[in-house]
TrEMBL record:
The keyword 4Fe-4S does not apply. Keywords: Cytoplasm, Hydrolase, Nuclease, Ribosome biogenesis. One of its GO terms (biological process) is rRNA 5'-end processing. GO terms for cellular component: cytosol. This is Putative pre-16S rRNA nuclease. Pfam families: RuvX. It is an enzyme of class 3 (hydrolase). CDD domains: YqgF. HAMAP family: Nuclease_YqgF. It comes from Aneurinibacillus soli. Its EC number is 3.1.-.-. The keyword DNA damage does not apply.
Length: 140
């Protein structure tokens, strides 16, 4: 079963998918936000294309573990995706993933312009990979 990881932001949604066995995550796309319905239509195409069986949505918690306004928006988006797709959606703590993605890209000497283009996709990869690494018993 393939899984999809989402890094939901105000302007973009980073998208990653797993291999069929659930070992590795690959970034596939950064969706420009155009409204919840249009955003979902593109996600729906990707869900069908990759035969997704579970969706992992990054949940940006505050450092003290509480959920703020940004987290509430991600939860609402995850619920919307679940209600439309009927696919299980898991909210996954994404604290520091964007910073880790940025650091990885800096270490790889990726230019600022290029980083901006791939940061959300890279964050989605990290969200999905962290989830799969923490849940090895789930398998494919």
């Amino acid at each position: 079963m393939r899984r999809m990881g989402l890094d939901v932001g105000d302007k973009t949604i980073g998208v990653a998918v797993s291999d069929e066995l659930g070992f590795t995550a690959q970034g596939i796309e950064t969706i420009r936000r155009e409204g919840k319905k249009k955003d979902y239509l593109r996600l729906e195409e990707l869900i069908k294309q990759y035969e997704i069986g579970e969706i992992i949505v990054g949940l940006p918690k505050n450092m003290n573990g509480t959920i703020g306004p940004r987290g509430e928006l991600c939860q609402a988006f995850g619920e919307y995706v679940h209600n439309r797709s009927r696919i299980p959606v898991v909210m996954w703590d994404e604290r520091l993933t964007t910073m880790a993605a940025e650091r990885t890209l800096l270490e790889a000497d990726v230019s600022r312009k290029k980083r901006k283009q791939v940061i959300d996709k890279m964050a989605a990869v990290m969200i999905l990979q962290n989830y799969m690494d923490a849940k090895p018993q789930i398998g494919g």
